[in-house]
Amino acid sequence: MVAACRFTVLTLFYALLYMNHWLVIA
Between 23 and 18, whose confidence is greater? Predict the structure, then answer.
C-alpha cells in the first residue's frame, strides 16, 4: 500500500517536472 502511494506521488512529481520543463522551453 505504501509502495503504491509512493509510486503515485513520484509519478505526479515527474509529470509536474516534465510539464514545467516544456513550459520553460515554450
Answer: 18
